[in-house]
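To illustrate the input format used throughout this study, we show a single complete record. The first block contains the structure-token representation of the backbone; no residue identities are included at this stage. The design step must infer an amino acid for every position from geometry alone.
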């Protein structure tokens, strides 16, 4: 065996395929939440000590393997420079423990959170289920997080640079604390923003998670307007985006697009997890013996793909083409990712697909984009956005 094949054997992708894939290809076995917690505990320590000789060597190796450099993939959007259009979606790094190292995984940006003003435990376990055959997940986490104050400390501990000085964009996704009544939501989000605005390149108003009672009511235009206007008065308010649910009626989606244009929002993120069972109503969750129809929670992954692209098309049409959109939901291959850009999303985010396919998915998507740019003779990825250019 030569040196290269030996190195390949110990590549991140190879280790992932050998050790994690067998676990992830079954619904039961190692609890998905426990697995995530172990990974985040490790990443958190690596991020704090990322400049130590040992960790910096490991991270350089990781970055060499996963980063794909192509200047044509860069974009400037709402005052932020994105090295590439692929980001880590909200909900994986809820407390921001890995904020200092997500760039080494090849991402162009990462969205940390959802963080709430009050620390909260979330719903009782088990609350996250793998649906391996469908490459999907059901979760009812309920915004488990350590709260805005701890996130601020966690970011400081990692010596995260000032937003204007960093080359890697970090978004902070804000949610409502469960104990806060809905009428007081604007001040609850506002308190988190006041504490965290100095750390964020952009901020997301999450009004679309299905696991906090009443939260989705804040998607109604008047409620949303009240919330946006409250956040706008925060000193040095970063660019604001709103994340929406896939389960909204099409007319409600158009209303949000209109409001976003009217309020001058930086962008919209579509979509969060779905309460719809997307044809999987009868699918039984092994761990509970109940069907998906009986189990509460939001569905993510491959089954969400069709609705997610439909929502992007609707938003693009309703916002006169000039509102930056972030596409998320069921993105698990270079072709699916390309089609989401061609439908109108300027940036994309990964969660469930990234878990099932492994870290190399980011690299594969970006390499796929570079090839497609060559084939279409596009000079920059921005030419793809909303072009309906097919994957060739
Ligand atoms: C376990 C889990 C937790 C999530 N937590 C959050 C969250 O805290 N905030 C949020 O905005 N979205 C959250 N999401 C939704 C994702 O960010 C994403 O919008 C959704 O999963 C669709 O993308 P996907 O099909 O690539 O997973 C969560 C998703 C999963 C699977």
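Output of the design step:
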């Amino acid at each position: 065996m030569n040196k290269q094949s030996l190195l390949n054997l110990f590549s991140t992708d190879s280790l992932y395929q050998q050790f994690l894939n067998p676990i992830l290809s079954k619904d039961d076995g190692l609890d998905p939440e426990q697995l995530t917690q172990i990974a985040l505990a490790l990443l958190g320590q690596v991020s704090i000590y990322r400049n130590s000789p040992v960790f910096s060597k490991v991270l350089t190796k990781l970055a060499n393997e996963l980063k794909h450099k192509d200047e044509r993939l860069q974009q400037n959007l709402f005052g932020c420079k994105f090295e590439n259009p692929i980001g880590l979606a909200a909900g994986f790094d809820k407390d921001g423990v890995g904020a200092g190292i997500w760039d080494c995984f090849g991402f162009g940006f990462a969205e940390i959170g959802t963080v709430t003003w009050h620390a909260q435990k979330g719903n009782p376990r088990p609350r996250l289920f793998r649906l391996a055959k469908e490459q999907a997940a059901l979760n009812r986490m309920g915004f488990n997080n350590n709260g805005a104050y701890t996130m601020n400390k966690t970011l400081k501990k990692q010596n995260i640079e000032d937003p204007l000085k960093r080359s890697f964009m970090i978004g902070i996704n804000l949610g409502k604390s469960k104990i806060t009544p809905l009428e007081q939501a604007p001040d609850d989000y506002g308190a988190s923003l006041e504490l965290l605005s100095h750390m964020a390149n952009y901020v997301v108003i999450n009004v679309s998670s299905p696991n906090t009672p009443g939260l989705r009511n804040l998607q109604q235009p008047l409620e949303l307007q009240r919330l946006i206007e409250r956040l706008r008065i925060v000193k040095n308010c970063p660019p604001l985006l709103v994340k929406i649910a896939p389960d909204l009626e099409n007319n409600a989606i158009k209303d949000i697009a209109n409001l976003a244009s009217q309020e001058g929002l930086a962008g919209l993120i579509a979509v969060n997890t779905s309460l719809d069972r997307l044809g999987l109503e009868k699918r039984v969750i092994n761990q509970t013996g109940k069907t998906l129809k009986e189990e509460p929670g939001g569905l993510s992954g491959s089954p969400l793909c069709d609705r997610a692209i439909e929502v992007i098309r609707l938003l693009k049409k309703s916002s006169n083409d000039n509102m930056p959109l972030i596409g998320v939901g069921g993105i698990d291959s270079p072709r699916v990712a390309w089609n989401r850009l061609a439908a109108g999303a300027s940036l994309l985010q990964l969660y469930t697909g990234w878990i099932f396919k492994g870290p190399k998915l980011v690299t594969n998507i970006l390499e796929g984009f570079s090839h497609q740019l060559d084939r279409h003779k596009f000079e920059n990825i921005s030419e793809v956005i909303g072009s309906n250019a097919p994957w060739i």
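Structural context for interpreting the output: The first strand starts at residue 75 and ends at 77. The chain has one domain: 3-383.
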